[in-house]
Amino acid sequence: MEPQQRSPLLEVRGNVELKRPLVKAPSRLPLPGTRFKRRPDQMEDALEPEKKRTRGLDTVTKMATSHPRAPALTARPQMQGQTTAPKVPKKTGPRCSTAIATVLKNQKPGPAVPAQKPAAAAPPLLGGKKPTKRPAWDLKGQLCDLNAQLQCFRERTQTLNQENQQLQDQLQEAQQQARALGAECRTLEGELARVQAQAEQSQQELGNLRAHVLELEEQLGTQEGLVQELQKERLGLQEERRGLATRLEEQERRLQASEAALSGSQAEVASLRQEAAAQAAALVEQGERLHGLEMERRRLHNQLQELKGNIRVFCRVRPVLAGEPTPSPGFLLFPSGPGGPSDPPTRLSVSRSDDRRGTLSGAPAPTTRHDFSFDRVFPPGSGQDQVFEEIAMLVQSALDGYPVCIFAYGQTGSGKTFTMEGGPGGDPQVEGLIPRALRHLFSVAQELGGQGWTYSFVASYVEIYNETVRDLLATGTRKGQGGECEIRRAGPGSEELTVTNARYVPVSCEKEVEALLHVARQNRAVARTSQNERSSRSHSVFQLQISGEHAGRGLQCGAPLSLVDLAGSERLDPGLALGPGERERLRETQAINSSLSTLGLVIMALSNKESHVPYRNSKLTYLLQNSLGGSAKMLMFVNISPLEENVSESLNSLRFASKVNQCVIGTAQANRK
């Protein structure tokens, strides 16, 4: 019996193991305990001595005589619909010789064939190229082919695992949406059934009332006919005076009939009184229900405002005015929100070129981009109506008894006064937040009057110039006498603050508010600066004290609405030559920056829940003490200029606003009694 033939690769392996062990050369396979992989060029250099030694052994022992070559391992393409092969775990222990032995061990010996010239092994089909024949001694080539197949299978397995994970995530998300939609559908079905039942009951009551109205109309017609008959009888009695004795019996008979009709009418009147009492009880019940719904609306409205945050920051960029240079296209960018262009923008990007670095290196100045995120960002094209629409619900919270404070912050000429008071000329399109807010409050208060609420409004308008309080509503001889105004408590043990010698004017309509704003514009301190022809050099504080009362239920509520136009925030120029006018501007700027710094310290202290809040460090924070605390709702407008020459001041304003936006002052409490 002819002995079984072995593969040439097994003979080479046996000869190599008998003569000399393989040299421990670098290998592409990972060693135990490490993740380092060898490159193909390192593998080729490591196997080169063994290749030469194998060739020598092949010459001496005549390896290729009458032994068939092992079949080449080729990568079989995966058919459509075939199950993906499982991911092969990454081996870290075996050496190169162990991997070769494993592959050769799995090969099945072929049948004996006549001796012929050995043929080179065909490498795997990669990229559709024609396979190249490899010699039997090319162990490195065969190993590389096996590694290529292994890498291909691993990549395909990893890709399929990723697709499987994505499909599982999509399935979970779809299941969650299906559960949410099912719950919502059940809720809506219950609500529909309740509304249908109420509609049927209302229709039945309406039919009863119609029938009763018809019955009353018939009775009224009967009564009218009876009255007409009595009038005719009276005329007849006057004409027949002489026949009184004869007609006496007839009159008595008619009198009895009238008495019977009167008794019937009295019974009907009693029935009508009972129905009127029932309707009055129903009206009382409806009033109770309406009051409960109003209290629920206020609670939900407050929850909505708390979810948005008790400290919110809006950024507004004013448009480029006539005569101003147009900024470069990439200077200001407004990235879209998470929902795409349809969502209101909440982010702002400012580009700034470092001219100093460009001068030193001789190359163009590099551009640095600064990104900011706020609760809402208004591009230059936003109108006054769009801005007020975002704060209308916050202003309405003042009617519910929550202190509300809205102030505009930014450098000179950035549009703060335009945002708060509006533009000149009385154009409704450019009205500021102050007239729009009061118009909204008057309208809502009138609607709540139908539910039993009565509101009163008292307005005051002061400015803080160089830490001195001035009354902007002063007229006549009191005009300009700001030293007499001081901030005091309203009474012993009272938390309410008032300004002595300041006018507190009751207002009830828009015309009265417009008159007050006109007087305040004439009295406010302005001056010419390098940034603005008429710059506001003081903080103006418009306060509206709101008092509400429900006499039927004994409820009272009251809260202030503070609308503040802060003075321009600019840094001091150390190289500025100081003349008489410049010294005055310097004192103003120092006072403005000091009060704005104190405002930032107060907000940070409230956010950090510190035991001491420095309200008294500035007249501004002391006056707004009740509108900045933990029971208040606060909104800050940071106004910036679109001009590149003001980029330094714009970045300072945006950084300050970002710090304020990160603060949380707690839950607001309504002032109710």
Automatic annotation (TrEMBL):
Predominant subcellular localization, coarse grouping: cytoplasm
The keyword Kinase belongs to this UniProt entry's keyword annotation: no
Places the protein is found: Cytoplasm, Cytoskeleton, Microtubule organizing center, Centrosome; Cytoplasm, Cytoskeleton, Spindle; Early endosome; Nucleus
Stretches the record annotates as Disordered: 26-53, 75-94, 108-129, 326-373
GO terms under cellular component: centrosome; early endosome; microtubule; nucleus; spindle
Binding site for ATP: 410-417
Subunit field text: Binds NUBP1 and NUBP2. Interacts with PPP1R42.
Protein name: Kinesin-like protein
Native source species: Zalophus californianus (California sealion)
